[in-house]
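EI: anyone free to look at a 703-residue chain?
SC: sure, send it
EI:
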Amino acid sequence: MPCSVETPTPPPDDAVDAVTPEDPAVTAPAMDETDAAVLAATETKAAVALPVKPAMKVHRADGAPPAPPAPPTAAAGGGGGTLGPMKVYSTESKRPRRRWPKVVGIVAGVLLLAVLAAGGYAYWYLQDTVTAITQTSDKRQQAAESGLAVALPDQPVTALVIGEDRRPGEGAGRSDTMMMVRIDPRTKSIAMMSFPRDLVVNVPGYGRRPINEAYEIGQEPLALATVKELTGVQINYLVPLDFKAFQRIVATFGGVWLPVDRRYYNSNDGSAEHNFMSINMQPGYQLVNGVNSLAFARYRHTDSDLVRMARQQTFVREFKKRVDRWGFASRIIELISILRDNLKILGSNKKPADARTLLEYGRLIGSIPRGNTFQVRLDDISSSTTNPGKLEASPQAVQTAVDQFLNPDMNSGQAIASRDVGKDAKAKVVKPTYDPAKIGIEVRNGNGTPAAAADAAWQLVENGWKLAHSAGDSLVEYLHTTVYFDGSAKGAKDAATAIAEAFGSDSDTKALDAAAMAEMQQNGININEPVVVVIGKTYTGDLAPPKVAVLPPKEEAQIVRDPTRDIAIWRDAQRKSGLPLMMPTVLYAGAQTRDPLFSSQPPARVYKSGGHKAVYVTYSADSYDQVFGVQAIQWDAPPILDGPSAVRDYKGRKLMLYFNGPSLQRVGWKQDGISYWLENSLTGRIPNSAMIAMAKSFKPVTR
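SC: here you go
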């Protein structure tokens, strides 16, 4: 970007970072408040509606009306007069009547009516809200629903999120964002995979075109078909999202805390050079409103589609943390009510999502550890030779990314931390009782689906159980996959447990006793292995990946040690912020302390966001997609440091390491009430070895 973009004077930090009331926030009824109001109203209504006990009626035999009650008279005495009522005296002391059982009974009845009424209202409201979210009158979206696969219980589900780029006065827009999101209940993980909008792919019926044109030509049905053909992944849900809805949702949650890697600025004056969305964001961790969140996620005019996709995935990852802290699991009904007018979640027209399904998915997402969110990157992309200005990816590159999406690496982070930083002192060393490559496994078909046992056996072999093989059919049908083990065989029980986990949470493990053996050998095929898997009807043909860490080779750190290089910058930041700061004394080789596009701007920014004093220093290495930074903020528990992949002690400091698969994205620690972290570039370009060396090198800034 030319230096001329720096001429407008940016607003003060507080004005830039604050969540402003500009966001078109949605006023959605919060279920917890609504239920309380309904409960109170129902109590009053129920109390008023209680039947009043009528006065006792007296019927005379002669048909005459009953005599009115006699007026009270004076007490008898003296001369004549009417006798007063007889008084009865007792020698026992007078006791008050025990009315509390009756009162409690009435109150209990009223509360029961109120709860039933509130529950009925909540159920009606939830069903009505889910209908608004999961049903559409748009003919194109209805057509797309026929191309979605039915989501199965306890199995991974994949959603395709499509963000539309529609501009005023224009027709159907192109898809600005196409992202697959996969939620796996078996591994408690979320994986994201995005597609560059300029990636040339085969659009069914239209030949090779940029992928975002699929939406422009045929909207949701064609976009869905294009992604399915490109990846081979079955899609269960479609989430069309327009940008106004995006802004409203972010505004509803009060903004989102984002790590802004560098300066972003554009003033759309209508000229060809600046005719894209206005943005004015300073670098550093900050609370960002809906308008700026959208501008940050969509920006791509001084970098590339790959960097833009990384920004979008960063937003999704940090927004989940925002929702988690807001109370996802406990406030799911309120969340759904917020989304009813801002979001569509469309499932297969063969079995649309219902309230129970959405609640289960909501609770599942809320329960997923924050470190189990993975960003899958499509690497090995090159310029297209047939479509100038567009991108190409080989089938092998696409398949590699799809494999990572379907089987995110959840284990290498801990192993890399132990190898490159230090052993986990608290970790219990569990000696394996079996070798998956050497334990015998028979797989039998108990669901009646042809070749189910052979398919499952092949997947087990692919997952490292090298001796797994198909062994015919079971004469007894099984609903859930059951893994039997011979208790006398070493490691068989532990192996059966691991195999059952791969088949999903609804699978069972059982001892291979005489009754089980007799049942399974009815087909005339004897059992010859210590582990027997009987495939049930809930088997979907998809096994969870093995829990095996794949370590990349340890590379030599390309670093430069210079404790005094940036001392003046850090001293100035310490003086302005009033914070006792730490600075790196080792830097990635070739790194410069500057913003690559705004070199005249000071690299250290001292600011406040959300009431927290903060300092951010920008570094760049070679190009705009290798911008990384150091953050210090006077905040003991910033959301970004939730859920580290691993924690290791280093010279009295607890280093928190955050991995995206085998790539180290962030290293954080806390000292003197200040949280620090070293943030990798958005695309993870700084090698693990350099990240670890820099994090270990931090020393207090000398005065």
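EI: The chain has a mean pLDDT of 80.
SC: 👍
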